[in-house]
Amino acid sequence: MGDVEATILLALSGGADAVVPDSFAFATTSNLDHNSIVGTCKSLQADAYVALSEHSTQFFVLGKEAESIIQNGSQEIRVLNALIAAGEEGLGMPELQSVVGKDVCKIGMGNCLKNKWAKKDKPSGKLIALIADGSKDEVKEHLIALKEAPEGGNIKILDATAYAALKRRKLISLVTRKFYTISRGPSYAPQRTKKAADLTKEMLETGKWKETSFKQYNFQTLGESVGGGYLHPLLKVRAEFRKILMEMGFEEMPTNKWVESSFWNFDSLFQPQSHPARDAHDTFFIKEPAETVSVPEDYYERVKTMHEKGGSGSIGYRCVFKREEAMKNLLRTHTTAISSQMLYKLANQPGGFKPARYFSIDRVFRNESMDATHLCEFHQVEGLVADYNLSLGDLIGTIETFFRKIGITRLRFKPAFNPYTEPSMEVFGYHPDLKKWTEIGNSGMFRPEMLAPMGLPKDVRVIAWGLSLERPTMIKYRIDNIRNLFGHKVDMAMTKNAPICRFEMPEEEEKL
Question: Which of 92, 98, 198, 291 is the most exposed place for a label (fewest CB within 10 A)?
């Protein structure tokens, strides 16, 4: 920076009226980087050594394809010349590509047909020239004119139609360049003396403060505002859901492990190894490490037997259960992978099984196409109750209690299919803003084929339900695109200004 600074100050040393009219041209003649010139000038301007006046200029620059056209001619002229040379017989596509090249053929053929310089003979499929003499290569001439124009002077030498055609073909691009006029400031000197920002103990002890130049203090300025962190809307809704579920007697499951084995994510749930959800286009598999280290071997054998031969009144899937498939690591597709581990621990804990209520709210991953309502990762809210002789009525009652606590009283249940629950139900709630019923969750009772290998008593039933965290958050904060809620497009101001999330139970239930 010192050499750049000295060069700028030296250029202004010729007199009070000395000026550098164009910082970019100055950088070029001085063999210096323009960004370094600008940065140094702004630093000098802060100390009033120089004054700056900002300007800008626009001009077109040519791309690589444009340079190729200047050397070899435009694609349409090269194709036309090849067709004229072929005569009345014309050229087929393979022949034309061998003459001018595949890329030139693709662009040039379309433009020749568009300009009616050639036609396509339908019986033979060949291209035949419609003009005997080559046409004027306007594209090449325009590009040469732009290239030979003085720098910054090629913005108006062609008509608007020509510019539009070249830009449409991406042969040229418009560049805006900023530059500065540099002149002397009120405190100009051939060499800058660095001013001290603070009065130090050493200055006071030695008396050096008497000879030191200090920066001007602005006693009117306000101190920098002290900012704080802000909770994302998803975290606000998550905190409220946690509070509600804990009030209902649920215990939170440890879900901080995003990578799971296929065994816990699929096999322990009695989901067949041939299920489409286990394909790479639906699930993110881990390359390294590709396989899990271990699973409980006795439990693994019971799960394998259930898949291959059945049990608990089921005939199983009558399939060959592959260990290499079960050991594959993946990004979990649902938090039910944690639920299965918790149920296994519950069945094998010291003292035997005891009724329990668990919930989790955490991130899951699906290999899905992203749109306004779907992402490759989202947050799943899941709850389960394990107890003796539970029924479908207990499941419906638990779901109604939870949704009533978040202000949704109008619910409908529709039979559905899930690989690891039977019976299964989709949960629909009435959306007051949209004035229609919308799916808000899924639920069911875990199948005996899933519970029996865990070692749970025969009369123990497990009811479970789940929903995404994003959908109620979008409804709560009136967000219509999930990418505005989660991901790199999120507006930070929205996170800062989002109100506290509170769900209140209605005083009276609305009648269906």
Answer: 198
In sequence order, the 6+-apart residues with CB closer than 8 A to the CB of 64 are: none
d(CA 124, CA 445) in angstroms, rounded, equals 67
The amino acid that residue 62 corresponds to is L
pLDDT digits (tens, 9 = 90+) for 85-121: 888 888 888 888 888 888 889 888 888 888 888 888 8
Strand (E) or helix (H) holding 25 = helix 23-29
Characterize the bridge pairing of strands 172-184 and 50-62.
antiparallel
| Phi, then psi, of 84 in degrees rounded to 5 | -65, -40
Do 94 and 127 meet the contact criterion of CB atoms below 8 Å apart? no
pTM over 0.85: no
Residue 398 buriedness (CB in 10 A; 0-12 / 13-18 / 19+):
buried
Measured CA to CA in angstroms, residue 47 lies from 37, 43, 301 at distances of 16, 7, 78
In whole angstroms, what is the distance from residue 384 CA to residue 253 CA? 10
8 A C-beta contact, residue 339 and residue 382: yes
Phi and psi angles of residue 407, each rounded to the nearest 5 degrees, phi first: 90, 10
Residue 297, Cβ neighbours under 10 Å: how many? 8
Q: What is the CA radius of gyration of the chain?
A: 37
Largest CA distance in the chain: 102
Q: Which two tokens stand for residue 324?
A: 């290499």
Write the pLDDT tens digit of every residue in 477-507.
Answer: 777 777 777 777 777 777 777 777 666 665 5
Whether the CB-CB separation of 355 and 382 falls below 8 Å is answered with no
